[in-house]
Amino acid sequence: MHPHVLQLDIQGTPQAWISLEQAVLHYATGSVAWEDGDLPLATLRGGFNVARGVQSRIEVAPIIALRGASKINLFDVVPGVTKAKLLRRDRHTCAYCAQVFADRDLQCEHVMPESRGGPWSWTNLVSACAACNNRKAARTPEEAGMPLVYLPYVPSRFENFLLEGRNIRADVHEWLAKRLPRGSRLQ
Fold first, then answer.
1. What are the backbone dihedrals phi and psi of residue 8, each rounded to the nearest 5 degrees, phi first?
2. What is the distance in angstroms between the CA of the first residue and the CA of the last residue of the chain?
3. Burial letters for 152-165: b for 16+ Cβ neighbours within 10 Å, e otherwise?
4. Can you tell me whether residue 164 is helix, strand or coil?
5. Which of 10, 151, 161, 165 lies closest to 84 in space, CA to CA?
6. 183-187 long-range Cβ contacts below 8 angstroms, 24+ apart
7. Among candidate residues 31, 28, 22, the one with its CA nearest the CA of residue 57
8. Per DSSP, which regions of the chain are E strands?
9. Burial grade of 5 (CB within 10 A; 0-12, 13-18, 19 or more)
10. What CA–CA distance (Å, rounded) separates 162 from 105?
């Protein structure tokens, strides 16, 4: 079972992964505007209505959009960088030798060295194998004579939700994948 529900704003912009319990609360308060996904994620049953003799139940969809507008423009929010998301963004490929490696064999490499003020950011980090990272050392790719095989970029909001690497249902994955920017490395 995949217990997380993809919460969207009314326009379909991903906001968060929420628990089944949080989703039920949104259903119970009437704040779900629309839903998507194949088959319910779960059906929760409650008590019996004595007058009608019917048991209450709530079917929770894997994707729900909430009423109202976001307080901030979610497309202006830069997703947080983690090693796991960076390696997935770069498809486990070293930015210098273009070989594919396992997670444990890759490092987060600063394009502009950290020792020279290079920030920990999506546009300054790439995946690199230990050999290439040691060879480049505290130099820029140009100084080391090691051009980048691909350029670093900030993932879109939809890419970020896929990069988080949660165990999600195929229909939710498809829904997010259909909204990826053209040219995304995740396609």
1. -115, 165
2. 25
3. beebbbbbbbbbbe
4. coil
5. 165
6. 184/156, 184/159, 185/89, 185/90, 185/91, 185/150, 186/88, 186/89, 186/159, 186/162
7. 28
8. 5-8, 14-18, 32-36, 42-49, 54-60, 63-66, 106-110, 125-129
9. buried
10. 22
Q: How many CB atoms lie within 10 A of CB 59?
A: 12
* Across 15-29, 50-64, 139-153, least confident range: 50-64
Q: Residues, the chain, total?
A: 187
CB half-sphere exposure, 151, CA atoms < 13 A: 4
**Interatomic CA distance for residues 134 and 97, integer angstroms:** 13
Indicate the pTM of the whole model.
0.81
**Amino acid in position 80:** G
Q: Which amino acid is residue 99, in one-letter code?
A: Q
Closest CA to 177 of 6, 53, 31: 6
pLDDT tens for each residue of 110-151: 999 999 999 999 999 999 999 999 999 999 999 999 999 999
Which run of H or of E encompasses 86? helix 83-89
